[in-house]
Amino acid sequence: MKETSLHRDLKYSYAGPGGQIEADVGGFVADGVTAAGEYIEVQAKNFGSIKKKALNIAAQGKLRIVHPVTLIKYIEVYDKKNKLQYRRKSPKRGNPWDIFNVLIHAPELALTPKITIELALVDVTELRVQDGMGSWRRKGVSIVDRQLMTIHECICLKKPADYLRFVPFKKKEQFTSGSLAEKAGIQTDLARKTLYVLTKIGLVERVGKQGRAFVYRRSGNNVP
Hints:
Largest sheet: 7 strands, mixed
Structural class: alpha+beta
Number of strands: 9
Strand content: 35-45%
């Protein structure tokens, strides 16, 4: 598949001075490796698709999975002659909780000692062309590239306890996916995915039901 400018710029940025791009690791190819020997893999979508690769690379050394989270997206639409038709700001905004949309397919990666998951909070420009070849939802307009504008912040999730930032409740306090969604300002579906992953990595546990909703609390196992 064609590599986006966003993906390319992030892998070069994280490989850093003295690093290498496209590193062979036990039959797999990592996006890069730093001068200190840490492997880099940039993954914007489903973590399930890189689970096997990530676990195999982590068996060889340390791996940092970089997940770009788009805070602000600008959309530029061009005609077939590459003339800009218009530019607009997308109403959709990402946030760190979006990690659970992709981590739900491979929660075990958060438990693997040599794997660090890093959220890169970015602004991007998405380039589109009116070529009639794109999705019907976009009326045939194709997405041709995503360009990095700004990296605002990086959130490093190195061990399970680092995910406690996504448990905004006190010890022994009980909550549901609905109350998590309300407190975090996210959709209930994303709250359910969050709780699924947090349960898998041992940070929360089910303690009962409230109507049709499961009730959770912070786990007492290995949780500060």
